[in-house]
Amino acid sequence: MNVFNIPISDPAGPPGLVSSLVEGIVHSPLQWPYLLSLWGCLLLGGLYLRKAAKLPLPPGPSPLPIIGNIHQLLSKPLPETLLEWHQKYGPIVSFQSGSRLMVSIASHNVCQDLMLRKGTLYNSRPNIVVAGRYATQGLHIALMPFGKQWQAHRRILASVTTENASRKYRQLEEVESLQVMLDFLSSDDFSAIFRRYSASVTNALGYGRRLTHGDEAEFHEAEQLARRLVDVIMTDFHFALVEVFPILDYLPGFLAPWKAFGKKYYSEATSFYSKNLLKAQSTPSWNWVKHSLTRPEAQDMSTDEISMLFGTALQAAVETIPSVLRVFVKAMLLHPECLAKAQIELDQIVGHDRLPSFSDMSSLPYINAIVNECCRWQAVIALGLPHCNTQDDEYSGYRIPKGTLVFANAWAIGFDEGLYNNARDFLPERWIENPELPNSAAFGYGRRVCPGKFIGVDSLFINIARMLWGYEFAHGKRKVTLWGIDHAFTSSPRDFDAEFSIRSAKHRETLEKLRTVADTDADVILGKIEADYQA
């Protein structure tokens, strides 16, 4: 029985990487020799892929020769196309994107089986040509295949992102979220306010310096660096082509523009991240860089490797937390009954004379439920990064050949009616009625789970609790739409406006009394964190 309900986004949304690829095939002035050589190579590869096998692939749409199912991925963003395929074919769907076999999983239990219980087979990553091999030279931890290098990087990050370690950072998150609250007194630009918060928390932890204004050079350079890579991957035909036909990477440089781009991008990225690394080492305060450089895993790593480890890991956090907070604002505008219910809980537990803090966390079940529902309802990492199995595998009567790109489809899992009744609806109550509901898809599965999960959840809780405590939400000039979503690196709500007004004069007075706390120097906060580590 089909358990998937399918929301369809606005057709005006950007088509994404696959669409740019198909459009490029139709309109690009590529020379015929280029296309003929591609055709010949792919025919040879196709002979191998078509050989008989004892078990079938997971069900899915029939592919065409050479291009596979690319022609079916043009009309709408990939997460929504896959939702439709899951409705038709079930929780495990296979499809062909060029020469790459892909499997989408829309079942929490299947993800647990493959990525946790069979984790030794599925913990690796496929070859990501542009962003992985060239732009980051294999040093991006999220794109790195499983092996000793990835294990060393992961151990360094894990040393500062465990659940116990993450609790030490709550004072910083409270100070930064207080700055968020004060910013809303004079601005409704929630997207910019959320980006500053996320960038400041990660920069303070990673490098020892808060970004209190959002106009610091580090802030803008990091944003531009991330945006340039995403934009070129999503819009350039050649860059899309090599990802679905990796054999094209054997072409000489003059026919492979991604190689020159990657070399230049890597040089700029390592220059920027290395400067941050040096600043972190010279600052008087404790920070992740200083802490990690003392670990044995770091002793044999080059400056580029260490700087890329922290630079890319911190940038991922800067992208994701603001997107989830935008989903939160969207949900409150569309569901004022949830906002009112949350404010009743906050008024009863916290009152008007102080802000919510982490000490209130266990006493605010509805706020925690809103956090969980924001992560599930419109997952901002819709498909996650693909896992890759390192050996042929069989599962539930299907074969999954070695090297398949396997997606834990958080977007589809979030709409699984077998797990979440009325899955398309924003219903925080579901998490109170059933506290055992899984929400793993938001953070990944197996050994590839997001290392910053606990910091992320804490950041969402403290910002959501405080915004609901202090502000009323109203629609702005650009109205929010239910399924208006831009699918790119993150699946974030399409741009909309909102207006925030302080709930009462008492709430304003409480906030104003805390302005000096928001100015707390990073050295003071990080010094306390260091003392906690040494205790």
Structural summary, described in words:
The chain is α+β, with helices and mostly antiparallel strands and 535 residues long. The chain has one domain: Cytochrome P450 (Cytochrome p450). The protein is built from 23 helices and ten strands. The longest helix has 32 residues, at 303-334. 46% of the residues are buried. Mean pLDDT is 90; it is low at 1-34.
CATH homology superfamily name: Cytochrome P450
Count of DSSP E strands?
10
Numbering strands along the chain, what is their spatial order in the largest sheet?
Answer: 1-2-6-3
Structural class: alpha+beta
Report how far apart the termini are: 55 Å
Q: Summarize the main sheet.
A: 4 strands, mixed
Form type:
globular
Question: Number of folding domains?
Answer: 1
What is the correct CATH architecture? Orthogonal Bundle
Total DSSP helices: 23
CATH fold topology: Cytochrome p450
Mean pLDDT: 90
Short recap of the structure:
By secondary structure, the protein is of the alpha+beta class.
Write the layout of secondary structure elements.
Blueprint: H1 17-27, H2 32-49, H3 78-89, E1 92-97, E2 100-105, H4 108-117, H5 119-122, H6 129-134, H7 148-161, H8 163-167, H9 170-183, H10 190-207, H11 217-235, H12 237-244, H13 257-282, H14 288-293, H15 303-334, H16 336-349, H17 365-377, E3 387-388, E4 393-395, E5 398-400, E6 405-408, H18 410-414, H19 429-433, H20 453-470, E7 471-475, E8 485-487, E9 491-493, E10 498-502, H21 505-512, H22 515-518, H23 522-534
Helix pairs in contact: 1-12, 9-10, 9-20, 10-15, 11-13, 13-15, 15-16, 15-17, 15-20, 17-20
